[in-house]
Amino acid sequence: MPSALPDGEPVPADGALPASALAGAATRPLGFYLHVPYCATRCGYCDFNTYTATELRGTGGVLASRDNYAATLTDEVRLARKVLGDDPREVRTVFVGGGTPTLLAADDLVRMLGAIRDEFGLAADAEVTTEANPESVDPAYLAALREGGFNRISFGMQSARRHVLKVLDRTHTPGRPEACVAEARAAGFDHVNLDLIYGTPGESDDDWRASLDAALGAGPDHVSAYALIVEEGTQLARRIRRGEVPMTDDDVHADRYLIADEVLSGAGLDWYEVSNWATSASARCLHNELYWRGADWWGAGPGAHSHVGGVRWWNVKHPGAYAAALADGRSPGAGRELLSDEDRRVERVLLELRLREGVPLSLLREAGLAAAGRALAEGLLQQGPYDEGRAVLTLRGRLLADAVVRDLVD
């Protein structure tokens, strides 16, 4: 969740949504994203809305404390119940992200999940995920999460090479994420993901292959692999600007992506979104699929974004301001926008093209259809799905996904 917030119109103090957003809501899937904005240290590449204890000191008082955070976030879940109304609507997915959610006590994460269960109810097969830093959990912590209702966990591995982790300012030791997978399995977690990053300055092809091999050796049923994006204002961006570390280029990123797809596919993990591979349909991240398919989700926490029925809104960024709003009985919303039918069409194309199922050609305008025909001729779209009315990326198309989708919506 990037730290910069967009502009938008004010959010009503009670958080109320237009009637149009709630029309037919009971028939649409609903997910919850719970943002935990705390980190022990700040990674050099991170631009997310997160805070260390030092950064919070003196800026929010007791309201910004992580000791009170579960209770504060529970207040927003109760607000969501009031805003969304009383129509029966079980929650299909819950995803706790950060930051480092596992800096909170396991009981706090379970309490936050319990608030959703109490206010809305969870679907019988609900997917409940938390992100975790490998150094912030142990077997007892994982067992407490599993007993409390979590059934999926995502560990930030990033790399198996010590020198790569050092450039990223990651604090865990090589081998710890793999051990966490075994501990999560022993605790009874149904699904385990490892997050990897490629293209770190100083990383070689051999380093990247070693990271992939180490991840697969641990036995997760899901792997996410993302190209490093150097965000302005981060410590890594400053180091590159000073010439302390080199910057990788797009060709290197493309080569690493091809290696990832080769290794992961060879091990039985199939891509289902450009940056995500899973062993089966049940191992996919259902929560992220809600985002990619434009479903409804409520994002609770500082800076969290939400979407319900064509209305998107986002919360104030700072934990102190967030807690103060809820303590005063006000929505913590900082701004919102009402999406037009055209906005939603464009977003469907932007997001669904990244999926293995692709996007219906019927969503494209005349110029987009012409662009799709060119992409097919250039080997960027698959012929079979195209003949059946869908635009589906080839492997080469995945490498150029941003350019392809830009042409389809222009």
Defining traits:
410 residues; alpha/beta; 9-stranded mixed β-sheet; 3-stranded antiparallel β-sheet; 14 strands; globular; Heme chaperone HemW; heme; S-adenosyl-L-methionine; Aldolase_TIM; cytoplasm
Class of secondary structure makeup? alpha/beta
| Global Rg | 21 Å
Spatial strand order of the main sheet: 7-8-6-5-4-3-2-1-9
Mean of the pLDDT scores? Answer: 92
- In which range does the helix fraction lie? 25-40%
Major sheet size, sense and barrel closure: 9 strands, mixed
Content of β-strand: 15-25%
The end-to-end distance, rounded to whole angstroms, is 26 Å
Task: State the total count of DSSP E strands.
Answer: 14
- Please tally the helical runs, counting DSSP H or I stretches of 4 or more residues: 17
Give unreliable regions as ranges: none
Which descriptor suits the 3D outline? globular
Keywords: 4Fe-4S, Chaperone, Cytoplasm, Heme, Iron, Iron-sulfur, Metal-binding, S-adenosyl-L-methionine
Main location: cytoplasm
Organism: Streptomyces flavalbus
Function: Probably acts as a heme chaperone, transferring heme to an unknown acceptor. Binds one molecule of heme per monomer, possibly covalently. Binds 1 [4Fe-4S] cluster. The cluster is coordinated with 3 cysteines and an exchangeable S-adenosyl-L-methionine.
